[in-house]
Amino acid sequence: MKLAASVQQVTKEYVLDGETVRALRGVTLEVPEGDYVAVMGASGSGKSTLLNLLGCLDRPTSGKLLLGEDDVSQLSDDRLSEIRASRIGFIFQSYNLIPQLTVLENIQVPLYYQGRLTARERDRCHELAGMVGLADRLKHRPTQLSGGQQQRVAIARSLVNDPYFILADEPTGNLDSVTTEEILGLLDALNEAGKTIIMVTHEDDVGARAKRIIRLRDGNVLSDARQQQKRKAVIRH
Ligand SMILES: Nc1ncnc2c1ncn2[C@@H]1O[C@H](COP(=O)(O)OP(=O)(O)O)[C@@H](O)[C@H]1O
Ligand SMILES: [Mg+2]
């Protein structure tokens, strides 16, 4: 079984005003390709810290962190940001789209990092826009879209780089219940299609959609449990 991520005895300490905060105290977990993980826990338990490490926004204080087969625990800032830009798909609560760019351009953003787009990459961006149901909105700008549509753009953008996994930080935190259902349905379908998803949420009914729930408490893994097989999702084109 191939691993999308392997976290081995990872600690993270922050020093703030001379005091050391132990945000992660030795976390070990493996995420196989195709998994769908919800990371849950009280405020301050270390969820964001863990997500930041997986997203190469930061480095562990100690321990080992592998993405695929690549050890990212000791990389330079430059290499970390290269990996972040080219191999991690992020979805945020606040969408984080670029307001001046169109839907299609926003989806293409992670590819600009590597220079000019090839014809094949352009086709792929069109395809992804269609997959998230925005084929007829390619020239719209983020302000001309609903919250759910903006999150769809972010999901398409998260996929352009063939990421190790999609990292979603409270992806439905700003959405109403109907739109939340739509977005969770889309994530279900992507997972069915083989994409690995790691999501932070504090909502039980959102976490219930994942295959596995990892609960953190005070920087430790409190529990790590697979859930009963949920109902199959259908990809809608
Ligand atoms: N940049 C930072 N500097 C100092 N302490 C931090 C920093 N980021 C997080 N912390 C502390 O680390 C602990 C875990 O925080 P965090 O990972 O944000 O938890 P969660 O996302 O579960 O709310 C908390 O005690 C928090 O105050
Ligand atoms: Mg947090």
Could you describe the 3D structure shown?
The chain is globular, with a radius of gyration of 18 Å. It has 237 residues and is of the alpha/beta class. It has one domain (34-62, 76-226): P-loop containing nucleotide triphosphate hydrolases (Rossmann fold), CATH 3.40.50. The strands form 2 sheets. It has a 6-stranded mixed sheet with strand order 6-7-8-3-9-10, sandwiched between helices. The longest helix has 16 residues, at 177-192. Helices cover 32% and strands 29% of the residues. α3 packs across α4 (119-131) and α5 runs parallel beside α6 (177-192). The structure holds adenosine-5'-diphosphate (ADP) and magnesium ion (MG).
Give the SSE layout.
Blueprint: E1 3-16, E2 19-32, E3 36-40, H1 47-54, E4 62-67, E5 70-71, H2 77-87, E6 88-92, H3 103-112, H4 119-131, H5 147-159, E7 165-169, H6 177-192, E8 197-200, H7 204-207, E9 212-217, E10 220-226
Parallel strand pairs: 3-8, 3-9, 6-7, 7-8
Antiparallel strand pairs: 1-2, 1-4, 4-5, 9-10
Bound molecules: adenosine-5'-diphosphate (ADP) and magnesium ion.
Magnesium ion (MG) binds next to helix 1.
